[in-house]
From TrEMBL:
<keyword id="KW-1133">Transmembrane helix</keyword>
<dbReference type="Pfam" id="PF06580">
    <property type="entry name" value="His_kinase"/>
</dbReference>
<keyword id="KW-0808">Transferase</keyword>
<feature type="transmembrane region" description="Helical">
    <location>
        <begin position="46"/>
        <end position="65"/>
    </location>
</feature>
<dbReference type="GO" id="GO:0000155">
    <property type="term" value="F:phosphorelay sensor kinase activity"/>
</dbReference>
<dbReference type="InterPro" id="IPR010559">
    <property type="entry name" value="Sig_transdc_His_kin_internal"/>
</dbReference>
<protein>
    <submittedName>
        <fullName>Histidine kinase</fullName>
    </submittedName>
</protein>
<dbReference type="GO" id="GO:0016020">
    <property type="term" value="C:membrane"/>
</dbReference>
<keyword id="KW-0418">Kinase</keyword>
<feature type="transmembrane region" description="Helical">
    <location>
        <begin position="77"/>
        <end position="98"/>
    </location>
</feature>
<keyword id="KW-0812">Transmembrane</keyword>
<feature type="domain" description="Signal transduction histidine kinase internal region">
    <location>
        <begin position="167"/>
        <end position="244"/>
    </location>
</feature>
<feature type="transmembrane region" description="Helical">
    <location>
        <begin position="12"/>
        <end position="34"/>
    </location>
</feature>
<keyword id="KW-0472">Membrane</keyword>
<feature type="transmembrane region" description="Helical">
    <location>
        <begin position="127"/>
        <end position="146"/>
    </location>
</feature>
<dbReference type="InterPro" id="IPR050640">
    <property type="entry name" value="Bact_2-comp_sensor_kinase"/>
</dbReference>
Amino acid sequence: MKESPYKKNIAVLIHFLGWILFGSYLFIITPLSWKVDLPLEFWVKQGLMLILLLTAFYINLHFLVPRILFKNDNLKFLLIALAMGGAYIGVIFTYDILFNMAEVMHSVFRPDQPYVRRPRTFGTFDLYNLLVFYMGIGISTSVAAVRKWQTDEALRLKMEQQRINSELTYLKAQINPHFFFNTLNNIYSLTNLDIEKAQTAILKLSRMMRYVLYETEKDNTRVSKELEFIKDYIELMRLRLSEKIKLKINIPENFEEDNIAPMLLLPFIENCFKHGISSQKSSEISINIYIRDKIMVLETVNSIFSSNQSTPEGNASGIGVANTRRRLALLYDQKHELKVDDENPENEYRLHLKIKLK
């Protein structure tokens, strides 16, 4: 995955400042604290070691770790790291021999004592410099590991978002035909009872279809549009209800405008009319919607009557509600609360939904 220019510039700046602090302390400030006049050969050696550390750091960061260590070739990585440490000490050893650094530094720290040349072998290297080298290798390995974790995490999040978007698209694709199926089924029943009501229902349905066709393509819609859609649906349901069914509807007219996922409330309201109506018994359906402090609340209460499972509508029951529960979990994971009570002495289905609006 490509880094944004801003993040890339920040990373370069952090590396630059880090090396200034590290190099200044280790190769400039520490030697100056010795309070002696150090020769030019010493400062050239300090600069050479810093360049070698920089080179090893970025070779390890951009090549060895991603291409060898992350490919699970641990032994090869270890051998190359040991070889690089040996080469680093070898260069320093060669520099000391060429410029006679032992005698030069002796004259700086013990000018009043004669220099006695001692044979120096490759095995008498400076352990301190080797530890500094491998500290740099360790830091670059850690930086590469963090980078890989960040890249893998960003890729995982992107794939998870793509999976969620695909699932949401699938769920909406299921809800839309489910809604039309039930609504057309209701209109069909009206044609046998009252042609004029059926015509009115078709007009309302056409307005609702425009909402479904255009608004559900978006991730969010205005709350006012969603509530107007709910009102149209309830009015459509009124056309088929007998006097035995009492409706208590409370939907706000004025409120602060916000956004909400489209068709998120409909399946719960649709469920009231699907299971809360009986042709023989009296019943009551209560639907209450209100918004306070950016929180939308839906409360529904309806009697529970067994659906006729031999009808298409009965067989389709539960699809919309189940899908909407899943949509709530995906879209409003920690921003919603859904409580259902369908086991009470009154034999009522009670729903309480709270959604923190975006």
